[in-house]
Amino acid sequence: MRQLNRKLLRDLLHMKGQMLAVTAVVACGIAMFVSMSNVKYSLEMTRADYYSRYRFADLFMQLKRAPEFTLEAVRRIPGVATVAPRIVTNVTLDVPGLGEPATAQLVSLPDRGAPALNGVFIAEGRMIDPSRPEEVIVSKPFMKANRLKPGDHIGAVINGRWKRLVIVGSGLSPEYIYEVQPGAFFPDNRRFGIFWMNRRALESALDMTGAFNDLSLTLTHGASEKEAIRQLDRMYARYGSLGAYGRDQQVSDRFIGDEIRILGMEITVLPTIFLVVAVFLLNIVLQRLVSTQREQIAVLKANGYDDEEVGLHVLGFALAPTVAGVVLGTGFGAWLGSALLQLYGDVYNFPRLLYVFRMENALGAVLLSFAAAVGGALMAARRAVKLPPAEAMRPESPPVYRPGLLDRSPIAHRLSMPVRIILRNIERHPFKSALSVTMISLAVAILVAGRYTYDSVQRMSDVEFGSRHREDVTVIFNDAMPPSTAFSFASMKGVLESEFYREEPVRLVFGYRSRRQTLKGLQRDDGLQRLIDSHVRPRSLPEHGLLLTKTLADLLDVKPGDVLTVEFLQGARRSVEVPVAGTIDEIIGISAYLRLDELNRLAGDGGTLSAGVLKLDASQSAELYDRFKRTPGVGGIMMLQALRKSFDEMLAKSMNISTFILTSFACILAFAMIYNGARITLSERARELSSLRVLGMTKREIAVILLGEQAIFCIVAIPLGFLFGIILSVLLARALSSELYRMPLVFTPANFLFAFAVLITVAIVSGVIVGRKVVTLDMIAVLKTKE
């Protein structure tokens, strides 16, 4: 086999361009598989380690106020392992260097020792001193965004009283991996943060001595979560419970869980495309190799090499670039996975990121790549094995051609000779031509799908911050306020427009299905807050009944005309029957809307307000912000443009990197296809092209014949790639969508122009490289034949 190995090495060097192209495609597919697999597993391990080390709870419940003696009954619930009561409230802040008001969620810490559940990792500084009620630990993202450090002071309005808080440390908690303000979906770390405060100090400020308003629990292995939730709801109904829920409805865990689920989808789709193209490339390269080395194969068999040795020799042409691709792809994938994990670390708050390179992923990459290599080489290897030496020594029989559609066409004589040669060759190899077009179109599809995710998320931002919300500020009240509050805010100097809404926690029941949900009562549907569907079409509130988002209607399996049972979870806890008047396909969240006066009537309490949205005079905004910072009863402030700026910065950082990676890999895929196609055409038709040169054709005409075929493939592949890209984007939209958000189908002209420009650029570059081979074509050597 030593002679065969030398021959293999010599032939590989001779075909180095084509083999490097195959290697690059395999490396891209393996790099994607390895990097995404490792990132997915690393995120899972990082989350599991964080949850375990800092005792993340299994069940959560918020309520109005409950006495601590009720905890004994909770501990007796079968399956309950640990119970951790807390006090949690939202307050407005005056942050040094920040003109606008910020919002903090104050979370109590035990007077002594670490929290039983939802522990705090101290990233900088120290724990609070129980004897100093003004000390707080502040979440690390908020500290970083506002350039704060231990020792700095922050003003806060707690229960209507101004407090001066001292920062003694920065921290993180598994409860806030995705730190977002209640009611928002996008983080604004500069204007919202988590503050941990001594329990005694917080209960004194809120008059909550001997009581709590937030409960976390863990369950023993095998315990029934559903039964524990049922008993908790029954026990705390009288104390204003909003309903217990598990991790699957905890906002932070849902966001990181969806991210891990999305990675699992990408592991399947993208590497598969690259490996399919690698199979095709290897097949056409090796089929051509067997055709050009018929005589060499015959000599090998005549000299005693058996079928197995010849087959393995041919298979070596596939394994060599595959092995190189595996090595390069695994190494690059390991590095890329580490870099991508750091990118996730910028969005999600972990005390440490555990990057785990799994040998199982590397082994999976090896198996996938070798399966692709064998799949691509199998037909060529079988063809080489079946060649009898006597037959292989003879030149391959020329194909029998008959006049095709082009030859019978009346316009054929109007075409130039090079064009007729190109079209005739495509017509005579329809299957090969169709596969070439399909493979090139896959590169275009990846470009379209890669840009689609960017455009889709951008559309979500435009709809949410542009079309749907037109206010400047959302003022959230700590407690339900009387309707007269609206006049107080509307009369403030500098407030141009104001609207108010009410939110009530309820349980929606239809048949055996139920869901804990918030009812939102709106004053109007065409003001500062509008109802906009995924197609950016405005919708109107029904005169009577509920307007549900389509996702919520699907979860409850209801349609317009059905009647829901609405169980109010606060106040008189009424239960009423309300018809479903319609559905709306919103992009973000799941909601249930109705008119404010209708909600007040159903609640039966005379009416209250939960929050207001305001349009401000820019010249008066600074004075208004100072007033909001000290207004009692205000539990939070959301700045619309600040949220959008924060979101756009996060989007630009994450999406630009992912788009760059996908574009680079798609360029490699397109280049490999176009370059290999041109090189194989050159090797197959070298004698024909040289003959045409001898007959008087110019080098330019020969180059047109050689590269024109690939140009036609690219032209046909572009619209087909657009179609495949749309199909792939639709599949991605369905896979990436969740209860928290739905990916809208957005296909901008810039997306298709970008894919078109990239493919044309790659085609030109590969054409220039192959065109140089035509210029240096040795006509005498090519035209030599052996009799």
Overview of the molecule:
The chain is α+β, with helices and mostly antiparallel strands. The protein folds into 4 domains: 1-60 and 247-395, no CATH class; 61-246, no CATH class; 418-466 and 643-787, no CATH class; 483-607, no CATH class. The protein is 53% helix and 20% strand. It has a 6-stranded mixed barrel with strand order 3-4-9-6-8-7. Strands 13-14-20-17-19-18 form a 6-stranded mixed barrel. The mean pLDDT is 81. The chain crosses the membrane at residues 20-39, 269-290, 310-341, 361-381, 434-454, 660-682, 703-732, 752-770. InterPro entries: ABC3_permease_C (IPR003838), Lipoprotein-release_system (IPR051447).
Task: Give the structure's gist in a few sentences.
With 787 residues, this protein is α+β, with helices and mostly antiparallel strands.
